[in-house]
Design brief:
3 helices; mainly alpha; 105 residues; elongated
Length: 105
């Protein structure tokens, strides 16, 4: 009969501990969740503010457009030079006698 009392006592103690733990830990866990949520929101707001500060303003956009325009001009000049060089090389390939005369003379 003693064994039955031990089992019953263990069962009742376990149930009481579970209920007490839930009652005690539930408000603590809610408060912890609230603090974590606030900390996460504050950090997100700080990061968002940093992103807004990092975005370029109108002056930076104008400089960027000017730099792109300069690069476009430079690429155009390089394309013209390349076309001119290709024409010279093509003439040399098309007229091998002229190249031979140049080396002999």
């Amino acid at each position: 009969m003693d064994m039955d009392l031990v089992v019953i006592f263990t069962f009742i103690s376990t149930i009481v501990l579970i209920i007490t733990g839930g009652v005690v830990l539930f408000p603590i866990s809610r408060k912890l969740a609230y603090f974590l949520e606030q900390a996460t929101r504050d950090r997100a707001d700080r990061l968002a503010g940093g992103v807004r500060e990092a975005l370029p303003g109108p002056a930076a956009n104008d400089r960027l457009l000017q730099t792109l325009s300069e690069l476009q001009d430079q690429v155009g000049q390089i394309a013209e030079r390349q076309a001119f060089t290709e024409q010279l090389l093509e003439r040399r390939r098309d007229d091998p006698d002229r190249e031979a005369d140049r080396h002999e003379g």
